[in-house]
Amino acid sequence: MLHRKSRLSRRAFAVTALSALVAGGGALAAGAATAGGRPDRRRAAREMRGVWVATVANRDWPSKPGLSADRQRAELMDHLDNAAAARLNTVILQVRPTADALWPSPHEPWSQVLTGTQGGDPGWDPLGTAVEEAHARGLQLHAWFNPYRVANHTDRTRLAESHPARRHPDWVVAYGGKLYYNPGLPEVRAFVQRAMLDAVERYPVDAVHFDDYFYPYPVAGQTFDDTDAYDRYGGGFSTRADWRRDNIDRLIQEMAAGIRKLRPTTQFGISPFGVWRNAATDPLGSDSRAGVQTYDDLYADTRTWVREGWIDYICPQLYWNIGFAAADYAKLLPWWAEVARGSRTQLYIGEALYKAGDPAQPAAWQDAGELSRHLTLAKNHAQARGHVFFAAKEVAADRIGAMAQVVADHYQKPAALPR
């Protein structure tokens, strides 16, 4: 059975990664019982130790659509238990993968990743349960939203009849085989904020989290058709690119204000693609030769968001190994540390656990110590206050023991989040 298999995976991980540390006198995981039966509240230095739980296309959870509510809940608990066993302190759960919801939203249909049918009621409240159960384990729960992605196909008739993209076809752009809301329409920006903030109002989530999807990644030979919107709203800008960046800037600033108004203690964090601009494009850019630059291609001016303090934390996806020529982890890390220096924005680093042991990846990723060396490098930069691992499925499987190595080398004691 899937549930039994996932529990065995969790147990195997806990034994291989943690039993030796505990037996050898290492600190217990957060909330674990001491010899006297009381929770151990000791804490190491404050740092982010997070994991992403991706739900889009059932990537991490649920393992497949259509499971019973009990099976879905049990799998989610396994992911939370895995995080606690690895002495992590944060779970970033994707709750709005394709303009649908993993809570009873009045604005958008239930996500199809739950029942297999978009709009199908799963019979329980995944987000509400996740918040409650994460907090019971001493974990923070960050609610991860994708603002503009509507579907991983272009057929609007496959969406639930109640889906806003069907009621407002003028809001939607087909591009690269997918459907997106048009970020250039003020009514779209207002709607997606309203849909996301509903979850903030309902649940004591510890943070709102966006990833790297703003305007879509470029597809060769295709054009994102927002000409009508640009003609209507872009008159004050010298280029369409500047107008698009302003659209995303407005989303970030307005969303931050909305979160503060509803729940002032809830943070706002973003995990962008790891290269803002290459130095060959902009002298302020990083020593990299990446084919994608967020400023130019996704119209996300991530550097400004940090420098201006619009967001509480940034977690760039530095998904490359040390020494990778086009985007060297060892060069991008200090660049981001310098961007964060003197700002109010916390810097965490996104780590590519999913690459460890993948035979399709370069030789560096076949070495179980690669990720541990990333964390060692980060200790040389005071601005780097922790790491988030992609993703939950790999925390459970730990193909070559890379996560176990991180735990052994860096997570011998539990840690609270930075203030």
Structural commentary:
The protein is of the alpha/beta class. It has a single domain, classed as Alpha-Beta Barrel (TIM Barrel), CATH 3.20.20.80. Helix content is 36%, strand content 12%. The chain has 14 helices and 11 strands. Strands 1-2-3-7-8-9-10-11 form an 8-stranded parallel barrel, surrounded by 6 helices. A hairpin with a 2-residue loop joins strand 5 and strand 6. Helix 1 runs parallel beside helix 14. It is globular, with a radius of gyration of 21 Å. The two termini are 42 Å apart. The N terminus is likely disordered.
Reading side by side through the largest sheet, how are the strands ordered?
Answer: 1-2-3-7-8-9-10-11
The amount of helix comes to 25-40%
Given as residue ranges, the uncertain stretches (5+ residues, pLDDT < 50) are: 1-43
Give the domain tally: 1
CATH superfamily: Glycosidases
Number of strands: 11
Helix count, DSSP H or I runs of 4 or more residues? 14
Rg from Cα: 21 Å
Which CATH architecture would you pick?
Alpha-Beta Barrel
Structural class: alpha/beta
Task: Set out the fold topology.
Layout lengths: L1 H22 L24 E6 L15 H17 L4 E7 L15 H4 L10 H11 L3 E6 L3 E3 L12 H4 L4 E4 L2 E4 L4 H17 L4 E4 L16 H7 L6 H23 L4 E4 L23 H5 L3 H6 L5 E2 L14 H12 L5 E6 L18 H9 L5 E6 L2 H6 L4 H9 L9
